[in-house]
Structure formats: C-alpha cells, structure tokens
C-alpha cells in the first residue's frame, strides 16, 4: 500500500529561521500530483503548494516546494509567527486514490 | 464568496447511522469533484471518500468501504455522506472538500483540495 512519510514529526525553530520539511513516498510519485497543506489549530487545512512546486493563490513566496520521485520538500525561507502550524503532504493517485502524510508540526523555539 | 458548509454531525451510538450534508455556494458545484476528509481528535488528516463532478466515479478509503456512501445532488449544490454501522474509530471532524482536477487531452491535471468547509463533528460513543 502506498504511504507518505513526513519528517521530522516536530520541528522547533525561532522566527526568522529557514524551515525544511520532508515528505517521502513509498513509491515514485509524479511531481504533478504532490500537494502541501497548512493547518492551524481549530481551523480547516489550507492549500499551499500543488504540482510539488506551484504556490496556490495568495500564498506568500517564502513558501516553496521541490522534489521528485519519492522525495519532496516544503521550505519556508524565513519562518513568520503565523507560519507555526501543522503541515501535510498529499498525493493524488491510485490505491488509494488520495493519501495524506501524517504531518509535521512546526513550533516556536 | 466560495463556501462549503457541513451539517449533520452529532453524538451517535456504535452501530447506528448518520448522514452528513455539505452545502456549496459561490462556485459552479457541478464542475468540481468533491471529497470527504476526516480528522480524529489530535490526529492527522484521513481521506474518506471521493465523487466525480458527474457522479460517475466514487472511491472510498478501505476503513469505510461498505459502510459509507458518498453522493451529490448538483441541482441542489449539495454533497452527502451516508454513514452506517458507525464505530468508535469513526469519531472525527468531517470536512467537505472541493478538489480541482481537470481531464484534458487524455491527461489528468491535479491542483489540490482547494476549498474546505469548517467541518462537522461526529462522535460515536455509547
């Protein structure tokens, strides 16, 4: 069965630092089908990145995505106070048709 | 304003049924595929079910297959999730989610789950 594994589970950083979040797939994923979301406490998730590297509407350019094959990365160039949240990667595909990673919590250090 | 509003959640005993609804507004509902995604207390996101814009294609997570049924009424701009034989582990916030997926010239283009409702809470407990 297809699995997305995110690391680290928790990332502690002070504001202004660079954040690097990883999403590893158990099988190769087309870059076109890899997406990232942000979820803040008590809120619904928000689409950040689609196609592995394209920012969704209204997403600041400090957020960037990269990767191919089985390894994908979400980078926040300089973490702002409002960026502390949980981040999920997700694949569109088959078996199963939609899969989420378990999430990475970005917390203030 | 593009909006999805879920309803129908509540407290239900194990083995009973519940029907969730989602009212869409601000966009052409019939043009988009839709999903239900859930989140158990303190846990991550779990995809539950998918339905295509024309209702011809549906998918379910293994954890709910045979118990849940997704449907939609494009004339009423509404999405539904019929949940039968509920279990304790079905306790979660259930989100109605729009998906931007295009099929052009023999290829699928995926732009992610771009609109989420605020969620409705389902608690399964005796």
What does this structure look like?
The complex is a heterodimer of chains A (109) and B (126). With 109 residues, chain A is mostly beta strands. Helices cover 0% and strands 56% of the residues of chain A. Chain A is built from no helices and ten strands. Chain B is mostly beta strands and 126 residues long. Chain B contains no helices and eleven strands. In chain B, strands 2, 4, 5, 6, 9, 10 and 11 form a seven-stranded mixed sheet that branches. Chain B has a four-stranded antiparallel sheet with strand order 1-3-8-7, with no helix packed on it. The chains are: A mainly beta (109), B mainly beta (126). Chains A and B meet through strand 4, strand 5, strand 8 and strand 9 of A and strand 5, strand 9 and strand 10 of B.
H/E element order of chain B: EEEEEEEEEEE
The mean pLDDT of chain A is 96
Helical fraction of chain B = under 10%
Helix content of chain A: under 10%
Q: Largest contact between protein chains? A: A-B, 25 and 24 residues
Order of helices and strands of chain A: EEEEEEEEEE
Summing up helix and strand content along with how strands pair, one would put the structural category of chain A as mainly beta
| Biggest sheet statistics of chain B | 7 strands, mixed
Reported for the largest beta sheet of chain A, the result is: 7 strands, mixed
Q: What fraction of residues of chain B sit in β-strands?
A: over 45%
Q: How many helices of chain B does DSSP assign?
A: 0
Spell out the blueprint of helices and strands.
The complex is a heterodimer of chains A (109) and B (126).
Chain A: E1 4-7, E2 10-13, E3 19-29, E4 34-39, E5 46-50, E6 54-55, E7 63-76, E8 86-92, E9 98-100, E10 104-108
Parallel strand pairs in A: 2-10
Antiparallel strand pairs in A: 1-3, 3-7, 4-5, 4-8, 5-6, 8-9, 8-10
Chain B: E1 3-7, E2 10-12, E3 18-25, E4 33-39, E5 45-51, E6 58-60, E7 68-73, E8 78-83, E9 92-104, E10 107-116, E11 120-124
Parallel strand pairs in B: 2-11
Antiparallel strand pairs in B: 1-3, 3-8, 4-5, 4-9, 5-6, 7-8, 9-10, 9-11
């Amino acid at each position: 069965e297809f699995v997305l594994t995110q690391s680290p589970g928790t990332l502690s950083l002070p504001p202004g630092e660079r954040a690097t979040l990883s999403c590893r797939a158990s099988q190769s994923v087309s870059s076109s089908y890899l997406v990232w979301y942000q979820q803040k406490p008590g809120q619904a998730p928000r689409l950040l990145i689609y196609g592995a590297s394209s920012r969704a509407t209204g997403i600041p350019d400090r957020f960037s995505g990269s990767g191919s094959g089985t390894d994908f990365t979400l980078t926040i160039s300089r973490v702002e106070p409002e960026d502390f949240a949980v981040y999920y990667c997700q694949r569109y595909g088959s078996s199963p048709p939609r899969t989420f990673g378990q999430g990475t919590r970005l917390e203030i250090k | 304003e593009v909006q999805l509003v879920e309803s129908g959640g509540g407290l239900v005993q194990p083995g009973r049924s519940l029907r969730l609804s989602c009212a869409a507004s601000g966009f052409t509902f019939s043009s988009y595929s839709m999903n239900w995604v859930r989140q158990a207390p303190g846990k991550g996101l779990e995809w539950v079910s998918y339905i295509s814009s024309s209702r011809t294609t549906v998918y379910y997570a293994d954890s709910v297959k045979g118990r849940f049924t997704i449907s939609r009424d494009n004339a009423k701009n509404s999405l539904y999730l019929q949940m039968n034989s509920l279990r304790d582990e079905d306790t979660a916030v259930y989100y109605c989610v729009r998906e931007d997926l295009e099929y052009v010239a023999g290829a699928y283009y995926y732009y992610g789950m771009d609109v989420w409702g605020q969620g409705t809470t389902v608690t399964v407990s005796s």
